[in-house]
Amino acid sequence: MGLFSQENPNSNAIQTSLKVRALQEKKEEYHKRTNGESDGYRVKIHFGSDKSKAKEVQAKFSSQYNDVPTYEEYQQPNFVIMVGDYKTKLEAYELLKKIKEDYPYAFIVKSRVRPTKL
Fold first, then answer.
1. What Å distances lie between residue 55 and 75, 83, 109, CA to CA?
2. Would you state the CATH architecture of domain 38-113?
């Protein structure tokens, strides 16, 4: 004669649901702390001490490639223009190949990137 215990069949589903919710909350907290940014790559297309030249390069790039986000940073003593938000170096390299003729001194840099639209 064997002994059997009664087990609630919904118990596993409830535990799984609670675990999923806990993971969602951790992800939300992480995005709040990082402003939704993660490690990735951008392409640096300009750096120099002349702010107006940097703005000019940024405007030219934006008009040529309006679907690629541009970013201006000040990294003492230079004004830097970086473009794109790529999770992998290979994705950034695809852009680099595309723009290399217009921006021959462009190169890939590690950066904090914003999530791309799906």
1. 15, 13, 20
2. 2-Layer Sandwich (3.30)
Q: What is the pLDDT of residues 45-76, one digit of tens each?
A: 999 999 999 999 999 999 999 999 999 999 89
- Whole-prediction pTM: 0.66
Displacement of CA 98 from its chain's centroid (Å): 20
Domain positions in the chain are 38-113
Sequence-ordered strand ranges (E) for the chain: 38-48, 70-75, 78-86, 107-113
CB of 20 closer than 8 Å to CB of 28:
no
> CA distances (Å), 34 to each of 28, 30, 70, in order?
10, 6, 19
In which residue are the tokens 């639209």 written? Answer: 117
3-state secondary structure at position 15: helix
Cα–Cα distances (Å) from 109 to 13, 15, 44, 45, 67, in that order, read 45, 43, 7, 10, 20
Check: CB of residue 79 under 8 Å from CB of residue 47: yes
